[in-house]
Each structure stands twice: as C-alpha cells, then as structure tokens.
Amino acid sequence: MKDIESNGAGLKLSRRLSALAEWVPQGARFADIGTDHALLPVFLAGSGKINYAVAGDVHDGPVEAAKRQVAEARLESVVAVRLGDGMSVLTPGEVDTVTIAGMGGSLMARILDQAGESLNGVNTLVLSPHVAEEMVRRWLAAHNYVLDQEMLLEEDGVIYTLMRAVLEPDPAEAKARHSRLYDEGALDPRLSRVSSVLLYEMGPLLLRNPTAVFHRKWEQEIAKRERVILQLSYSSDPGAKEKAREWEEDVREIREVLSCLPEAKRLSN
Fold it and tell me: How many other C-beta atoms are found inside a 10 Å radius of the C-beta of residue 190?
C-alpha cells in the first residue's frame, strides 16, 4: 500500500487509513478496535489531533506489535494498548470516537451490537467494512447513528468502503433523518424509485454522488453475481432456478440504477 501521509514522529499511513484519520474529530478521545499495529492511534496521537486513545485487539500478536509501536513513538501516556474482544476493552464513557476497519460487515455489526455500555458517550463511528456494508448501515439506522460521510477509495487494486456516522440523541429526529437518507425517491427524476434494499447495499450518500470508483465497484459486483447465476444454472438443486431468478432480478435492478447515474454516461465515452 502506498504511504501518503506522515506525522511528526515519522509514522506513515496508507491512503485508506489517512482518509479514516481525516474523519476523526479534532481533540477526540479515540478508540481503534481491531487495531493491529496501532498505526492509526499512534499517527493521530503523534500529530496532536487526539487527546487520548485506546488501541484494542483480540489477538496477542497484534497487541504486542501495537505496544512496540506506541513505545517507539513514546506515546505510552496517550495511547493505551489493550487485549480484548471488540469493545470490551473500553469502559463506559471512556471515548467519544471509535474506528473499526479491515473486517467484514457482519463481524463489525456484531461488535457494535455486543458493545453494550461501552458505546456510552460514543458520538462518532468511523468504519470501513470490506464486505456486507449493508449490515453496518442497517445497524447504524437501528441505533440512531446517522451517516454523514461515505466514500469509496481504490488502493492497490482494492476498492474500500469508508463511512462515518454521528449519534443523533433525539430518536424522533434520528428516525426523520434516516427516512430522508433512505428515501426510495432519492434519485428522482432520473429514477423514480430505488428499493430500500439497494439503498442500504449501495450506500445512500454514494448513490447521490456517484464516482468512477463507485461504477467500477458495482460492475465488479455485477460480475460476481453473474458468476453465481452461472453456477446455479448447473445445479441440480430443486431451488436453484428460483435462486437464479432472484439473482437475475438483483442484477437487473443494479444495472437500472447505474444506467441512470450521470457518471455512467461519462465512463462509457
């Protein structure tokens, strides 16, 4: 991965981690869950952007590597490295911003779902699921966290999804904001209706501001689905034909959405 940013301690971040770092509020009390080598908290602490950090990981190896990283940067008084599963490494109210990246959306949603009181005081979530992004968006919508940033970033041939959500403390206001965010008429008049399933899967903010990377991602997703359809065509399972029809309808809907987005025309030239 290409290094593009460094802090005062000389630590460099990839483009993806750099983009996540930009979304962390100035002066945050920060936690990085699944921290690996603690690159993000050390970078943020070394640059003075955050006041405090917890770097948590469930595996011994990454925790030891994180401790070395923190020690080399002489940031032991700012960054606490802890071994534990998910957000169990936090005490209620300890941090206000949490980043989780580099894992699937189902695992990410499970970590958030099991956080319990560890989420107390957490106003900002900065997340980067590498698959099943819709599961994360549905968790956010169900727990009054409202998306305010989404982006796709391509690095070394891999397309990453990044999202930031902010807690809306008023449940009624959170419901109203989510209703607007996942409005099935979001693309009207270009397309009269986008199913809520696709809004959660493709990303409501990404759909409203499509980029070339967005189109590449979804052409790749269509190709994956078409491979599944082909495999189903060879299956002797009695339900295979019905499953294939469902996948075909899914592909048809995605193609319809892509065809109406302005970037699609530019890409075809």
Answer: 12
